Structure formats: structure tokens, C-alpha cells
Amino acid sequence: MSATTTSLPSVQVRFYQSKRFQNAIRQIILYVLLVLLSVVFIFPFYWMILASLKTNAQIFLWPPKWIPNPVYWENYVRAFTNPQLPFALFIKNTFILEIGIISGRLLSCILVAYGFARLEAPGKNFWFTVLLATFMMPGILLLIPKYILFNKLGWINTYLPLIVPAWFGESYAIFLMRQFFLTIPRELEEAAVMDGANTYHILRYIIVPLSTPVLAVITVLSFKDIWNSFFEQLIYLNSSTKYTVSIGLAYFNGQFTVDTGALMAASVVMLIPVVIVFFIAQKAFVEGISLTGLTGR
Fold it and tell me: Which has the closest alpha carbon to 163: 218, 215, 221, 104?
């Protein structure tokens, strides 16, 4: 007897019911939403650049001119040639603060974070909890005590009140570094100790070279915060020769009038260094953000 086999009828799936089509629709919707959100976030920067290339009369035209004609470069000339607002000097002063604060923050935070991550000491976890608790303390609470202290030391109208505290650590940077150091295998340090390395050698030749991503994160975030900082610099600096770009930018707003074109031109110039630093360190910055905090130890 020969066995007979019966085949089931094939089910025809319409193209719009297929998983491939549905995934394609999801991807299209996702990209459309991303493009729309990108336009929303980029538009203020586009308008700032556009306004910096227009006369003050053209900036407030309605309907607006989306392409300046003619291009008005005089705003950039006025922003950098105003004798009462030496913007080039403000940029130089800001870079002095950047170098002093970032170098102190990196050096001090590396040492403290390594102690929390690797060294054994009584009450280490308690003090780390205290460190985390400082995240919840508003900085404005310390403003008056700090000002009184720095005034007694004669540091007002100098960069010392802004630079010196950075050499004693910063809680958020310490937290990020400590979390990243915990991801580095201890075997590397143990092998270095067997070869005669001390703590200094371990930090210099193992920990720091492997911690480039988190150091890039701290550097970029610190650079952005210092570059945009306004309140503390305004409190401690009284002389116009020591002002930074954020304070100088505020002076484009006059008491009765606002030179909008020069203000937008100065804002574009102020934005460029932050964008350059981010794109240079973008790869390490993203890697550091993704790796920091993955360990559960």
C-alpha cells in the first residue's frame, strides 16, 4: 500500500501584513520623528546664525527673511572692535579659567576616585555616601559662606575663588570616575604590583591611560559648564579686564537698547569652542557615558 500525503494549502500573506513591511513602517516613523525633533532643536541655532548676518532692522521683519540678502558681516566687526567690550580679552580670560579648573578637577578627582574604588580604609563606604549626599545640596547655600571666606583671604576680583576649589575635587566627577575605575580588571594592577609597581605607577601607566573615555566626559562637561558659567564669575570678578565671555555677552544688553545683531554675532563666536571640543572628543565622550556605572560592585 502506498501512503498518500496531503499538502496543506499555502496561506497568502498580503505585503502590508508582512513583518518586513511593518518593520519598514516603524523605521520610517522613527526617522520622521527624529528629523522633526532635530529641526525643533536646531532651529534656534539656525536663527541665531541668521540674525548675526542681518541688520537690526532685518532681524525683526515680518514675514522673516530666511536667507540674509545682503550678508551683513558688520555685526562681527562691532562685536570684536568695541573698546568698552574687549571680547577677545574675555575669551582669553575664559581659557585661563578653563585650564586652571579642568586641570585641577582632573588631578584631584582621579586621586579621590581611585581611593574610593581601590584602596581599603575604615568608613570608606560611609564617606562615599556622604559624597553622594552632596548632590542634593543646592550650590546657592554655600555662596555667602564662600564669599565671606574668599573676601577674608583677599581673593575677590581674582580667579582664585573659581580655580582653587576645583583642586579639592568635585563630587559628580569623583562619582563618574569611581564607577569607571571599578570596571577596570584588578588583575592588571596585581600584575603591575608583582613587577614592582607602586600606587603612583599604577595610576600613571594603567588607570589613567585606560580611563580616557571618562576623562573625556569630565573634560567636555567641565569645559561647557565653565564656558557658560555666569553667576559665580559675576560675584567674584569686579574688573572688566577680568570678565569672561558669559559676562561680556550680558553687556550687549544695554539699559535702554539692545544691539541684537552684535549680540547674536558674539553668541555664535561663544558657541564655536564648545562645538569644536565636543566633536573632537565625541567618540570618547559617548563611550565614557555608555560605560560609566555598568558595574554593580
Answer: 104
C-alpha cell at 27: 523605521
Q: What is the pLDDT of residues 86-132, one digit of tens each?
A: 888 888 999 999 999 999 999 999 999 998 888 888 888 888 888 88
Cell reading at 151? 573676601
Helices (H) and strands (E) in the chain, counts: 16, 0
If you write DSSP's letter for every residue of 95-147 in order, what string do you get? HHHHHHHHHHHHHHHHHHHHHHHT---TTHHHHHHHHHHGGGS-GGGGHHHHH
Residue 219 CB contacts under 8 Å (≥ 6 apart), including other chains: 102, 106, 277, 281
Is residue 105 within 8 Å of residue 162, measured between CB atoms?
A: no
- The tens digit of pLDDT for each residue in 134-183 reads 888 887 888 889 999 999 999 999 999 999 999 998 888 999 899 888 88
Residue carrying C-alpha cell 540674525: 51
Domain residues of the chain, as ranges? 16-75, 77-291
CA distances from 10 to 7, 13, 16, 22 (A): 9, 9, 18, 21
What cell was used for 4?
A: 498518500
Asked whether 251 and 85 are in contact (CB, 8 A), the reply is yes
What pTM was estimated for this model as a whole? 0.78
Report the C-alpha gap between 297 and 290 in whole angstroms.
17
Helix 87-117 with 212-228: angle, nearest 10 deg: 140
Class of the domain covering 77-291: mainly alpha
Radius of gyration of the chain (CA): 28
For CA atoms 107, 109, 112, 115, the dihedral sign is negative
